[in-house]
Specification:
The complex is a heterodimer of chains A (80) and B (639).
Chain A lengths: L1 H14 L21 H15 L14 H14 L1
Chain B lengths: L14 H14 L6 H15 L5 H15 L9 E9 L7 H10 L2 E7 L2 H8 L13 E5 L14 H25 L3 E5 L19 H17 L4 E3 L1 H8 L1 H4 L2 H7 L8 H15 L6 E4 L10 H4 L11 H18 L3 E7 L2 H10 L10 E7 L3 H12 L6 E4 L3 H10 L15 H8 L9 H9 L16 H7 L2 E7 L5 H10 L12 H9 L4 E10 L2 E13 L3 E9 L8 H15 L4 E6 L11 H4 L3 E3 L6 E5 L11 E5 L1
Parallel strand pairs in B: 1-2, 1-3, 3-4, 4-5, 6-7, 6-9, 7-8, 10-17, 13-14
Antiparallel strand pairs in B: 10-11, 11-12, 12-13, 14-16, 15-16
Helix pairs in contact in B: 1-2, 1-3, 2-4, 3-4, 4-11, 5-6, 6-7
The chains are: A mainly alpha (80), B alpha/beta (639).
């Protein structure tokens, strides 16, 4: 699980490279200047690629923060 | 995840480190930084950008490109381009990849989205409301959504109306870009990604598929008429496959016209056109010969032994590749040769092979020698009066490619794969020779070099060759002959012509006799590997052991691994072995043939002195006790 957070943190750092605050499960779009709705789509795609999961049309856009996204990734992987 | 860029080399192990360093360096750039510093950054950025990158490395590159843009005026070796993108879908995702993709082709791209509404408003008569700085080109990317009024017109009248409306929209948009914004329009062809209800959809009056097909023709005609440049996005979508191209989830989520993951590929594809527009495409192609233009080695296999022509699938593949090369030449690409070979031998197929399509008159410069290829490429660029950036180099040998990339990062060096059947596609897909519609001057350019297959005198070697050799991490293993390898050893003995000191041929049963006479003969087989892989048995040495004198009866090596210092390393090893055995003299002979001039000077180079002897060729000798070890970067394994 921590590994997952680490992996996600790396992606956050590269995608939102001007953000240098802390990254935790509570991080959400509001905290990060560069994180707008367009970047969010890119973020989800990178997560899908990195974790080998795929979210449905209904799921995308429903994640409140990194924690929820992490949990969804975990559930997806078990389901696979 | 398969790479989208098979023509690019895989990322090297030190890539992350180098990128981190470069990024750090770019962050410290200021007005006070030296011009040389900017040039070095541009070169390193180009080098790092030219690999097949994963998603996250691509992000790092995009961030780097964005930071470089801040200093756009100072990067004088990069061509600065302001590129607008406009279309009826979300194109923001293309901005960052476009900046990154430019670096590969020497472009520093300032990309931004021009709101579609703005362009459309201008197209329909509003005065220029775009007040920003002029742009070098505006890419127009539309899909069926731009022609909404066409919906539901499934009839012949509907067909004419939809086509007329769409064509006029396209014309107006392009004209607005050209006349109102003072820029060049680059119009993307439209991929047809939908699933068809009927298989005669294209014949169905008023259908979207039919509309797109006819619009693409309009786009092509506009390009032919020099009204705009075309960008064949539809062809790229076809190469990717439409299922992989379009993602309905993402489309409904963010109205992206193609999968976001394809950003780098799409951006690279647009950069082909932008590079062609800016004169940054390659103008000359430097070709290796053996296993690049034909199968096998002309030096070892001879003109009847090389695989070329309609008698085998492999021969046909090489022929197809030559046809591809001639097509490049017709488009103005100047051809040159750089081959590690004897000049006369290398020219033989061009002169005498009945199925060879490439002839000497097609080749502007013909470099067949044993010098480093980077040095040769440099000389070729000078002779053709072209910058290194205009050169592409095609060679089947990974080590040669890597050497050129290290030494001359401006030269384009595509990965062509191991099978000649794929060479043309790899080179075409790399886009290095992309061009605008041809002019008469383009067509005549290759001819104007008065191709005469001239060979050039080489000046000083360039680069640090030792450093390169060290980077190859070479290992050589030496073992005695054994039954398992007997057939391969006999094959080498009977086939090797160029690096072969005595050209004595022995059958497999004779090889067996050597193998079993360990007291009278030292028999070594040499294997070799480097960072690019294992080469198998590449050398054979047979030494006759007399009481105090050893005589080298046979010494041959494969031409695939020349100029790596293997002969020096082997000499060191043999001298050590002889010293241990108390041998006073080692004798080597060179028996000249039509094909082995390559090794005429080998023994003197290795520290042997000429000596008397009653043989036809030249005789040399060396004293193991006083022989000083030769420089070597090869690790040795004795088995």
């Amino acid at each position: 699980m921590n590994d997952d957070l680490e992996k996600m943190t790396e992606i956050v750092r590269d995608l939102f490279d001007e953000y240098d605050g802390p990254v935790s499960r509570e991080l959400c779009a509001r905290d990060v200047g560069q994180w707008d709705s367009l970047m969010n789509v890119q973020f989800i795609v990178l997560i899908e690629q990195a974790f080998g999961v795929r979210f449905s049309t209904r799921e995308v856009g429903q994640f409140k923060d990194l924690g929820e996204l992490l949990d969804a990734v975990k559930t997806k992987r078990v389901a696979n | 995840m398969p790479t989208f860029f098979p023509w690019r080399p895989a990322m090297t192990a030190d890539w992350p480190q180098r990128m981190a360093m470069l990024d750090g360096l770019v962050r410290t750039l200021s007005e006070n930084s030296a011009a040389s510093e900017y040039d070095a950054v541009a070169l390193e950025a180009r080098r790092l950008a030219s690999h097949a990158l994963g998603a996250q490395q691509a992000l790092k590159l995009q961030n780097l490109a964005r930071r470089m843009l801040v200093h756009s005026k100072s990067f004088t070796t990069l061509r600065y381009l302001r590129i607008g993108l406009t279309g009826n879908r979300t194109l923001s995702y293309l901005m960052a990849p476009l900046r990154a993709a430019g670096l590969v082709r020497g472009l520093l791209i300032d990309a931004f989205e021009v709101p579609y509404d703005v362009v459309r408003a201008m197209a329909f008569g509003q005065p220029n409301i775009w007040e920003r700085k002029p742009i070098d080109a505006m890419a127009i990317i539309l899909d069926e959504g731009a022609f909404r009024e066409a919906d539901g017109l499934l009839s012949e009248q509907g067909d004419a109306a939809a086509f007329g409306g769409a064509k006029s929209l396209l014309d107006r948009l392009a004209r607005a870009v050209r006349e109102e914004m003072g820029s060049r329009a680059v119009v993307a062809t439209i991929p047809a990604c939908g699933s068809n209800i009927s298989s005669s959809e294209l014949a169905l009056g008023g259908s979207i598929q039919r509309l797109l097909m006819r619009l693409n023709e309009v786009i092509v005609d506009g390009a032919r008429g020099h009204e705009w440049l075309m960008w064949d996005l539809a062809a790229l979508a076809n190469r990717v496959g439409t299922d992989g191209w379009f993602d309905p989830v993402r489309f409904h989520e963010a109205k992206v016209p193609f999968r976001i993951e394809l950003g780098a590929l799409v951006a690279d594809h647009l950069c082909r056109t932008l590079a062609a527009m800016s004169g940054k495409s390659c103008r000359a192609l430097v070709l290796d010969l053996d296993d690049t233009l034909w199968g096998g080695s002309i030096g070892d296999d001879g003109i009847s032994g090389i695989r070329l022509g309609e008698n085998s699938p492999e021969g046909e593949a090489y022929l197809a590749f030559q046809r591809f090369i001639l097509s490049l030449r017709q488009r103005g690409v100047v051809l040159a040769v750089s081959s590690k070979n004897m000049d006369a031998i290398a020219r033989e197929p061009f002169r005498n092979h009945p199925e060879m399509l490439l002839r000497e008159e097609h080749i502007a410069v013909f470099q067949a020698n044993w010098e480093d290829k980077a040095t040769n490429l440099y000389a070729i660029a000078e002779a053709l009066n072209l910058g290194l950036e205009s050169l592409a180099f095609v060679d089947d040998n990974a080590a040669e490619r890597e050497r050129v990339r290290q030494e001359l990062p401006l030269v384009s060096v595509p990965e062509i794969g191991a099978d000649p059947a794929f060479y043309p596609a790899r080179i075409a897909d790399s886009g290095i020779f992309d061009h605008l519609p041809l002019t008469d001057a383009d067509r005549g350019r290759a001819e104007s070099y008065r191709s005469r297959a001239a060979s050039l005198e080489l000046k000083a070697k360039i680069g640090d060759y030792d450093e390169y050799l060290r980077s190859l991490k070479m290992t050589m293993s030496v073992s005695r002959f054994d039954p398992v390898d007997r057939a391969r050893i006999a094959q080498l003995i009977n086939k090797s012509n160029q690096f072969n000191l005595t050209t004595r041929r022995y059958s497999e049963s004779q090889v067996r006799l050597f193998e079993e006479s360990a007291n009278e003969f030292l028999c070594w087989q040499i294997r070799f590997e480097d960072i690019f892989g294992k080469y198998g048995i590449i050398g054979v040495l047979i030494v006759r052991k007399l009481e105090r004198i050893w005589v080298i009866d046979t010494w041959l090596m494969s031409c695939r691994v020349l100029t790596r210092g293997i002969e020096e390393t082997l000499t060191n090893l043999l001298m050590a072995e002889a010293r241990e055995a108390g041998v006073e003299t080692i004798v080597g002979e060179y028996l000249p043939t039509q094909r082995n001039a390559l090794v005429a000077g080998l023994y003197p180079r290795l520290g042997f002195d000429p000596s008397e002897g009653e043989i036809v060729g030249q005789r040399y000798s060396a004293c193991p006790a006083s022989h000083s070890p030769l420089k070597s970067f090869i690790e040795i394994q004795r088995l």
